[in-house]
Every structure is written in C-alpha cells, then in structure tokens.
Amino acid sequence: MKASVTLNPAQFADFCEKKFNLNSKLGYHYESMSVCILDCVYSLRAKYDSMTVPVVDRYAKVYMRNDRHTGGDTVSMLISNIDAAGGAESFADKVLQNHQRIGGLLKSEVCYKLATYLKALHIETIEDFQSFEPQELLEIVIRSVKGIGDAGANYLFMLAGDPNRCKPDVHIHRSIKDAYGHDVSNDDCQLVFSQAVDLLKHKYPKLTVRLLDNIIWKLYSGK
C-alpha cells in the first residue's frame, strides 16, 4: 500500500502544462445511466477501445437504436433487459458477447448488482444520480458492490457528469510517477489533480479534474 505523501501541486500543474494540450475537449458524453454503468464496469482492467466500447455499442444496437449517446435508457431498463435475456450470464453471452470477470464475478453480474443498488436509491437517470443527497452515501453504496473499487466508483461519478473526480487507473498513476518520480495512493492522486486544476484554472478556465483525467488518459493510452 502506498503511503500518503506531501506533494507540491505546482510541480504537477507545470508538468501537465508542458506535456498536454489543456485546451482539449472531453472525449466522452452519455445521456443514459444504463450505459454509464456498462462503460464503468467494462472499463475496469480492460482495454477501452477494443473491449469496453464494443460492449456498450452492442447494448446500444439492441436496446438504444444503435446510439449509445441517446437519452432515456434507465437503470430499470438495464435490469429488465438483463432479466429478459435470461440473467447476467445469458446477457453476457447473447447481447454483450463478453465474458470478462472482475472480483471473481462476470462483469454483467457486477452491472446487474450495481443497477439494483442504484434502483433501490430511486436512481434511474443521470439527473437522479447527480441530484442524489448525500453524495457520500451514494459513494458508499457504489463501493459496496464487489469489483468496483476506487477506480470504478470515481469513474461512474465522472461518467454521470461529476467534473471534480479522476479515475485512479494505471495511466493516472503513471502520470503522477512521471511528474514526481514516484507513485502515490489513489486518494493522493485525487488531491493533486484537484489542486493542480485549481492552479491552472486562471489560464485554462474550461479545465476540470475530469477533463484533465481524460486528456492524460488519451495520451498515455496512445489514443
């Protein structure tokens, strides 16, 4: 486990300004909570473009008129679609054509459990997710789903529109290591990203933690 350390946010801000185009635009945007769940879970420990995007597109082809960016596909609809397909295993086989596992579970099972937990909180849409209070409780519920972890919880909030989070995955940790010469904890990743964005805001007013995460991810993943 990486120990918490004191970091100079100006050092990371300077690193980002020299290495990245901070005027870039966000590379993803969803209008339906169902695909936020699918993208979140199927992005974990997977190659995004070759594994995650095809899964979301297969779902959209069957249930969303082949448009993963359209609105109106709710949490309950995802649950109903999985049930109608014969359950999570059959859904993974027939619809998503992906049998990846995380935490020992099929990712389709993780999606189903996450969806049922959100439905229990009366969250159906991205707007419901954004307006739920307290957000701390929502985060606890999401993290209680086996397989989600820090990266998954933060990424789901990001997909649902939270501009103040980063997903502490391998690419984010690599950028931290390149900037400071050593890695840090997931919590420290979030802290240094937030502080660096605060320092850069005066020059890049549209920059957010979520956008910086996306900019870094694109470069480090080679996209």
What percentage of amino acids are in beta strands?
Answer: under 5%
Number of domains: 2
Number of extended strands: 2
Numbering strands along the chain, what is their spatial order in the largest sheet? 1-2
Globally, the shape reads elongated
What is the count of DSSP helices, taking H or I runs of 4+ residues? 12
Distance between the termini: 30 Å
Based on secondary structure, the structural category is mainly alpha
- The overall average pLDDT, rounded, is 94
Largest sheet: 2 strands, antiparallel
**What pattern of helices and strands is seen along the backbone?**
HHHHHEEHHHHHHH
Low-confidence stretches: none
Rounded Rg: 18 Å
What's the short version?
The chain has 223 residues and is an all-alpha fold. It contains twelve helices and two strands, in the order H-H-H-H-H-E-E-H-H-H-H-H-H-H.
Written account of the structure:
There is one protein chain. By secondary structure, the protein is mainly α. It contains 12 helices and 2 strands. It folds into 2 domains: 9-26 and 166-220; 33-159. 61% of the residues lie in helices and 2% in strands. The protein has a two-stranded antiparallel ribbon. The longest helix is centred in the N-terminal third of the chain and has 16 residues, at 48-63.
